[in-house]
Amino acid sequence: MGLSMNVVIAIFVSLFAATTLPTSNAWGTEGHYMVCKIAQSYLTSTASSAVLNLLPAGANGDLASECSWADTVRGAYPWSSALHYIDTPDNLCTYDYTNNLTQALMFLSHFMGDVHQPLHVGFTTDAGGNSITVYWYNVKTNLHSVWDTKIIQTSMSNYFGNSMDTMANSITANITSTQISQWNSCGSSTSACADTVATESIQNACNYAYKDAPNNAYLSDTYYLSRSPVVNTRIAQGAVRLANFLNQIFV
């Protein structure tokens, strides 16, 4: 193997500690699923084999099926909640090594999606949009939820027959080799990549998420049609970068 996965995940989590919020669960099930589904298609044969060996039997070789695992275990493993916004706890190293690598894979896959959701680096005063009430096509929700799930679910309903796989395939088909090169330009420097992703998310939060979305705003087609391409791009970027990380880990 190349980079240690445990080292990568610890560095990646700690680098984003200052920008993530404990009240914010970036991307819903759909967004995380698509990030991992797309990423798996970009793995090298070596990385793909390693990932398949680490996935639990119930995943049936599908990384996407485990991409929301990090959210589902918060109740069973209270210590894991902290991993979403502070350093890895010291006692993580006491787990069985093989099991620890499996969990590290699923945490890293989840966190890579998390940090690409713009409001995961949103403003502290509104908890990343959680305290901003909005009406999504007249249904009361909050701005963070719009970016977590509503935009994606609207796209799935309108264009993809409510299929996560179909939407993921569409996003994949529109990723160019030039984009892959640009998105992975930070190379093997974890800190540089973290800075790049955080900067992108902050800019997207300011330029798209918060813009024209004050408290009690009614958001519909105008907001959706101008923001859904941003969401699709962030999913694509998260997927490509996740694949790049895994390809560097498993060489």
Mean pLDDT: 83
Q: If you compute it from the alpha carbons, what radius of gyration comes out, rounded to the nearest whole angstrom?
A: 17 Å
What is the chain-wise order of helices and strands? HHHHHEEHHHHEH
Task: Give the CA-based shape.
Answer: globular
Number of strands: 3
Walk me through what this model shows.
The chain is built from ten helices and three strands. The protein has 251 residues and is mainly alpha-helical. A three-stranded mixed beta sheet has the order 2-1-3. The model is unreliable at 17-23 and 84-97 (pLDDT under 50). The chain has one domain: P1 Nuclease (Orthogonal Bundle), CATH 1.10.575. α2 (29-41) packs across α7 (164-173), α2 (29-41) crosses α10 and α6 packs across α10 (221-249). It is 55% helix and 4% strand. This is Aspergillus nuclease S1. InterPro entries: PLipase_C/P1_nuclease_dom_sf, S1/P1nuclease. Pfam families: S1-P1_nuclease (PF02265). Keywords: Disulfide bond, Endonuclease, Glycoprotein, Hydrolase, Metal-binding, Nuclease, Signal. Belongs to the nuclease type I family.
